[in-house]
Amino acid sequence: MPPNFVHLLEAPSGRFSAKPALVWDGGALTFEELDQRADAFTDALAARGVKPGDRIALAIGNHWAFAVGLLAGWKLGATVAPLDPLLTAGERRDILADLSPALVVDESHLRELERDPVETRPRSRGRARIRPAPPGPALILYTSGSTGRPKGAVLSHRALELAIESWAGPVMALTSGDVVLATLPLSHSFGLNGALLAPLLTGATVALVDRFAPDKVIEAIHRHRVTVFPGVATMFRRILDGAELAAADLSSVRIGVSGAAPCPWALAHEWRVRTGIRIVRGYGMTELFRPISYQAADPTESPDAIGRPVPGVEIRTVDDAGRSVSTGEAGELLIKSPMVMDSYVNAPEDTREVLVEGWFHTGDLATVSADGLVTIVGRKRERILRGGYSVFPPEVEAVLLTHPAVAEAAVVGTPHPELGEDVAAFVTLRPGATTRPDELITYCKQRLASFKYPRRLTVLDALPRATTGKILKSRLARPATAE
């Protein structure tokens, strides 16, 4: 029978039955209680006509009911597609039209999920676990749509198993004594894998925070004695900039883990200096989980690099003709991984474009050092061709982030009648900081080659972001003007 990831969770459910699996402000579920509720909701799904192999959409936020719905879907042999509850009505409608689920599980089902499973059906310790027919895929995860319409990545139970073992093992080195903060959206790959499934697999406790806010996170860390803090760069930045940090008790935290969007070295370094906590940086995407990362047990750090391939992952860098490039030379990053998606939903051409002979074409331009460290230098599609010169946005963004007034930066190409494209930058400022666009342009001009520095710069109150923290460059104004 093909693997079903939920069966791997049965071992910690039995071994740590009385231990808290999920805790939150005002409540907790033990591993046994979580399993009981998932069993009971499996029956409820079946009563609603959901069958093994069906798809269900799960549109619940960072609530214990999300975990119950997820596990129940797998126990039944269904494929679960988590949806962000913050999607607009139009975004949700488009995804559901693409997904065609047998059922949408959302907050309207909370009362049913909250019913005591002991009252709804008898259950003895010796009752056999549900063994559904061979399951379909485990997950369909929709991309954030930062450069176009969201696509649903179909992920097998086997890929999920290997990915979660990697998260729990080399990336975070989790044990049953850990308490992992879950303030990342559980509907997205990073939060689902790093903040929920990897802890549950190892018998660790998950501390749920429904919505990120610096004061709520700091309070949850103190109350639950959180040991691992998975977060996106903006979360770490907001805590550093907030007044709450001065009185915060973060003494229980052994590591932070960044993902979903790049975490600049300057931010990771500042976080460590001010809190004493290392941020384990890495690289991943919806279709690949986390194929490249630093590891919790390895203290090696390189400011520019994002880490090395995790065990089982192969990488190549190639030129536009598909030829491997030399060590240290930039090329498109290709990844071969047992954790890769099977396909995109209803998009065979898109699937064939990115999956070629087992290699996933990331669209990212990278260099690989002699000792295997990977550095992302830009997006293949975002590379700005200015008068025949290539400009990689991350290089310009990194310079802007060294300015003491700049909190965040995003660089894009804008059409130019003579040069083809020009360089435009968008920034937000640190609290209380002031500067003018022309001052920031001059700052870049002094530190970058003449073809690289931005000719236009806009100061914004906030950069447009997906709920994962990824900057939505497609939503930035084009062309930009200095303001």
In words, what does this structure look like?
The chain has three domains: 5-211, Rossmann fold (3-Layer(aba) Sandwich), CATH 3.40.50.980; 289-379, Luciferase, Domain 3 (Luciferase, domain 3), CATH 2.30.38; 384-475, GMP Synthetase, Chain A, domain 3 (2-Layer Sandwich). 30% of the residues lie in helices and 25% in strands. It is globular, with a radius of gyration of 23 Å. Strands 16, 17, 19, 20 and 21 form a five-stranded antiparallel beta sheet that branches. Strands 2-1-9-8 form a four-stranded mixed beta sheet, sandwiched between helices. With 483 residues, the chain is α/β, with parallel strands linked by helices.
User: Under the CATH scheme, which architecture of the largest domain would be assigned?
Assistant: 3-Layer(aba) Sandwich
Give the N-to-C terminal Cα separation.
62 Å
- Rounded Rg: 23 Å
For the sheet with most strands, the description reads: 5 strands, antiparallel
Number of domains: 3
How would the blueprint of this fold be written?
Layout: H1 5-8, H2 10-15, E1 20-24, E2 27-30, H3 31-47, E3 55-59, H4 64-76, E4 79-82, H5 89-99, E5 103-106, H6 110-114, H7 117-120, E6 139-142, E7 152-155, H8 157-171, E8 179-182, H9 189-202, E9 205-208, H10 214-224, E10 228-231, H11 233-241, E11 255-258, H12 265-275, E12 278-280, E13 282-285, E14 289-293, E15 308-309, E16 314-318, E17 331-336, E18 343-344, H13 348-354, E19 355-356, E20 359-368, E21 374-379, E22 384-386, E23 389-391, H14 393-401, E24 406-416, E25 420-429, H15 437-445, E26 456-459
Parallel strand pairs: 1-9, 3-4, 3-5, 8-9, 10-11, 11-12, 25-26
Antiparallel strand pairs: 1-2, 6-7, 7-18, 13-14, 14-15, 16-17, 17-20, 19-20, 20-21, 22-23, 24-25
